[in-house]
Amino acid sequence: MTGPVSSKADIHDLADSTDLTGKRVFVRVDLNAPLSKDSPPAVTDATRLKGACPTIEFLAGQGARVILASHLGRPKKKVVDSLRMDPVAARLSALLGKEVIKMDDCVGAAVEERISSMGNGDIMLLENVRFHSGEEGNDETFSKQLAALCDYYVNDAFGTVHRAHASTAGITKFVERKVSGLLMEKELKYLKGAVDNPVRPMACIVGGAKVSCKITVIEALIEKCDVILLGGGMIFTFYKAKGLGVGKSLVEDDFVELAARLMDKAEAKGVELLLPEDVVVADKFAADAESDVVAADSIPEEWMGLDVGPKTTSSFEEALAPCKTIVWNGPMGVFEFDKFAAGTFAVASCLADLTSKGVITIIGGGDSIAAVEKAGLADKMSHISTGGGASLGLLEGKDLPGVSAIEEKTPRPM
Ligand SMILES: Nc1ncnc2c1ncn2[C@@H]1O[C@H](COP(=O)(O)OP(=O)(O)O)[C@@H](O)[C@H]1O
Ligand SMILES: O=C(OP(=O)(O)O)[C@H](O)COP(=O)(O)O
């Protein structure tokens, strides 16, 4: 068959137009869940796994052979045993109440053979796609290898929709049909509705550790938001731009200049860009570190900032009080260590309180979800999004490769 195919369709459209019995359906999911430090590691927050279940159950229910693919962490293009998908497969299997066949690679003869012996409705989880250099490089050969595993492609990985990788973008050029999954549709619908024409004032809180990915989004946020609050590992690059000492804190030297420009831009635009005025510092990156609260300009040389301080959380509460829409990505501190969780929990508690007063609160990101779950407040927010960088990308209004690859007209392969 030739001719262009265009699809904004989801899995219901696919099932309505095709008998999926026995069909090999490749589903890109985002099962990049936080893991414990145990050996072997265990999934510590299953929100992303739970989010993927409706699509998996639907396709299995249609009799499809369901082939799941995801990344886990950032293995830097090589096999990292602690980032194998086994703990994810075990937890997913428990959630689905069904065996999940776990493969030790994501392409190749062994995978193809095992797929050919799958029964209708069986579920397989491939190994971490980022073990192959072709994944993040969006490599054509690797994309074709993935595409060769399936009849149809589904993208349900909202958390990775902002990445143009082989399993989220490249593969779509080589499959007969490509549609979005139920989680993807649900996330896009909710988030677009909330941020396209937001109820104002709108605030965005950005923290976490993926500084280089997320600092670049702040430029667009200055155009869109009325208030921007910064926390987590993000702040030290800004402190450095202000000429402050940051000790051994996380800092991205390549982005210091950008941080300076962003502060100038926010000021020129009259957008409130709030940086923490006090910081909880530690003598090492450990749960049992010595800690102290210091002013932002007094971080000791050998210490590192691992949380925002109490004065900061009060100022943040004040700044958020008038806001009607709040988007939060990235914890305020290393909440995994109890000593450095207070700032994150205080912001979570403030947002839960504002939600009860009618404010729209959106929390996104694997670790941010884990943090509000740990605080016991996840069900008190308006929306828990499985995507952090993805929801910021959507708020930014930029092209999301995982969406455009599905929508793109591509020549149907022969
Ligand atoms: N001051 C800090 N220094 C180092 N890491 C931090 C700091 N504050 C927060 N973090 C870490 O940031 C991580 C989450 O970052 P990120 O992946 O960007 O968030 P999300 O997964 O919600 O998008 C957490 O594991 C947390 O420990
Ligand atoms: O965890 C994720 O993003 P998030 O931390 O922004 O929520 C996604 O799985 C994407 O991972 P990546 O940022 O390593 O591409």
From TrEMBL:
EC numbers on record: 2.7.2.3
Co-factor(s): Mg(2+)
InterPro entries cross-referenced by the UniProt entry: Phosphoglycerate_kinase (IPR001576), Phosphoglycerate_kinase_CS (IPR015911), Phosphoglycerate_kinase_N (IPR015824), Phosphoglycerate_kinase_sf (IPR036043)
Keywords: ATP-binding, Kinase, Magnesium, Nucleotide-binding, Transferase
GO biological process: gluconeogenesis; glycolytic process
Reaction catalysis annotation: (2R)-3-phosphoglycerate + ATP = (2R)-3-phospho-glyceroyl phosphate + ADP
Xref: Pfam families: PGK
Pathway(s) per entry: Carbohydrate degradation; glycolysis; pyruvate from D-glyceraldehyde 3-phosphate: step 2/5
Family per similarity comment: Belongs to the phosphoglycerate kinase family.
Protein name: Phosphoglycerate kinase
Organism: Ectocarpus siliculosus (Brown alga)
Lineage of producing organism: Eukaryota, Sar, Stramenopiles, Ochrophyta, PX clade
